[in-house]
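User: Sequence in, structure out. Go.
Assistant: Echoing your sequence, followed by the structure tokens.
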Amino acid sequence: MRALLNLSRRSRSVLLVLIAIGAAALVWGKGLIGFADGRSERKEEVAAVEAGRPGSFRATDEQIVDLSEKQTASLKVGPVAWREFALVKTALGTIDFNEHLLVQVFSQYQGKILKAFYNIGDEVQAGNVLFTIDSPDLLAAESTLLAAAGVLELQKRVLARALNLLKSGGSAQKDVDQATSDHQTAEGNFKAAKDAVRIFGKTEAEVEQILGDRKLDSTLVVPSPIAGRIVARNAAPGFLTQPGVAPAPYTVADLSTMWMLANVIETDAPAYKLGQEVEVGVPAYPDKVFKGHVTALGAMIDPNTHRQLVRSEIEDPEHLLRSGMLASFVIRVGDPVRSLAVPAEGVVREGDGTMTVWSTKDSRRFTKRTVKTGLQQDGWTQILEGLSPDETVVTDGAVFLSNKLALGEAG
């Protein structure tokens, strides 16, 4: 130390620099020794993997899982297959009556209901009388008819008398002409009165009976205009009914066809066309498919929900569907496409949202592959990218491999 102090200031600085360089070289040498040891240990791990130790995994660019023969027995493998996928659109909706075949039956004239003959659920034929009313308008029309008949009868006698007097020279020609004019007027009024009564639904025989008996009948019958089923009834004796004033006394529906109303998303709207074939299912009949076709497309997109109305006419000859039922439909919007596919159990959705499958060449070592998927139909998933036709993949149990890889990396 005394010798160090005796050195000049410049000499002491040079000596300190040399000491620092020597210490750094010593630390670097130890690092090289540690790195060499680490590489040796890594080589041992890789050798263990290459030796095919059961259940081992490799953390390389390719994510690989090696399984024992016992573990692979729980998996199923198969080749990537070509399949046809139908281009379809699906949507949920509700069943409703075919409003083109739904009739609200009103009386053409106001009046008090006398009798109602059918209940909800009853089947009716066209022309069956649904209810009768006491119509003051019919009473007035019949009264006018009887009055017109009386005037016509009087004018007939007046004309006959005038003709007889003219022959005997007891009257002038102008009297005959006046009587003829009055008779023609009375005859026209009588025909108009008869037609007015017929408008109420009275037959020719019923009109003649009124004239023969000279008895008024204000009972107006209201028949069903179509064959179908009674789906609503608001008629009861004593109720006053007026034309077009809701509720209608009866509502009759032809149930041979029904409507399905669905609101489809805006992005799917261009795919729907009039006349497209539709297959409809309802929860009440899970094993039955109802056929139909698209009959109407909404003219606008709902600004709140951004959906478009699609209306389909569904055939229902057995009258199984009910208005208000929840339903789903499938519409084919194009020709089928042929594409690579694997069973749905062979595709795994990873935590980051990617879709993966596991390929293998020897059924012992499995490589994780990221794929792009498309349609899913009948238990198969369409593969758009990531696989080739000659590859063998896990078709059942792919989740087991993904879980094992995750646990291995976690460990």
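User: And one key feature?
Assistant: Residues 57-84+337-410 form a domain with the conserved putative lor/sdh protein from methanococcus maripaludis s2 fold fold (CATH 2.40.420.20).
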